[in-house]
Amino acid sequence: MHNSHIPPEVVERVTRRRGRAHIHDDLAPARTALLVVDMQNAFMPGPLAHAPCAMAPEIAPAINALAGVVRATGGLVVWIQTACTDGDRIAWSIAHDMVRPERAQMRFRALERGSEGYALSPLMDARADDLFVEKRRYSAFIQGSSDLDAILRAKGIDSVLVTGTVTNVCCESTARDAMMLNYKVVMVSDCNAADNDEEHNASLRAIYLTFGDVMESGMVADALRKRRA
């Protein structure tokens, strides 16, 4: 697991500005969605990966445990999967031009809809009653990426718990945009994985300072159970 850490001086700044250290510790369980971002074979160490994150398998048990709490307290579990389509070669050409051609091609192969790389890792405890949403950009909320925002609003969701991989790319992008769309956002520190502690913690600090809250999964679970209807 990552050594997740937000410096005390950052906590002090946030507490002074907001009035308490954790502004979203009062989540309403039935209006809360757990977003599990990109826990797909394409991002797990192994032959199917195009961009493996070594820490990703380590967070799977904590995500599964939190998913169980969210279900039990009346919330929604959403599995978000990245897909690469032929249209993205044009519509998101800049992203693919930023890497070597062979690496871009590897991404398209690994994340082709319906492929083994596209599939959720077998480590993940996805249930038939959960929701499954496909995204086509790093953020699940940005225009043209997915219909996640419309789905959540139709179900009365106003708060999101962001988990998955990698912390500082798809997870942070999704968290930032969620806050911009007026959702309460919590990054779950021990349910996010990055390539190293430095990048993981930089992302957590950025979210905590401006865009939402950061809690570890046990604290989130306690908050949901406490306020269960």
Strand order of the largest sheet: 3-2-1-4-5-6
**What would you call the structural class?**
alpha/beta
Output the CATH homologous superfamily. Answer: Isochorismatase-like
From the alpha carbons, calculate the radius of gyration and give it in angstroms.
Answer: 17 Å
Share of residues in strands: 15-25%
Summed up, the domain count is: 1
CATH class: Alpha Beta
Total strand segments: 6
What CATH architecture do you see?
3-Layer(aba) Sandwich
Biggest beta sheet summary: 6 strands, parallel
- Determine the number of helices (DSSP H or I, runs of at least 4 residues): 9
Succession of helices and strands: HEHEHHHEHEHEHEH
Low-confidence stretches: none
Helix content percent band: 40-55%
Average per-residue pLDDT, rounded, comes to 93
CATH topology: Rossmann fold
Shape: globular
* First and last CA, distance: 32 Å
Brief characterization of the structure:
This protein is an alpha/beta fold. The protein is 41% helix and 17% strand.
Question: What would you say this structure looks like, in words?
Answer:
By secondary structure, the chain is of the alpha/beta class. The chain has one domain: Rossmann fold (3-Layer(aba) Sandwich). It is built from nine helices and six strands, in the order αβαβαααβαβαβαβα. A six-stranded parallel beta sheet has the order 3-2-1-4-5-6. Helix 2 runs parallel beside helix 9 (217-226) and helix 7 runs parallel beside helix 8 (197-211). The longest helix has 17 residues, at 56-72. The chain starts with 7 loop residues before the first helix and ends with a helix.
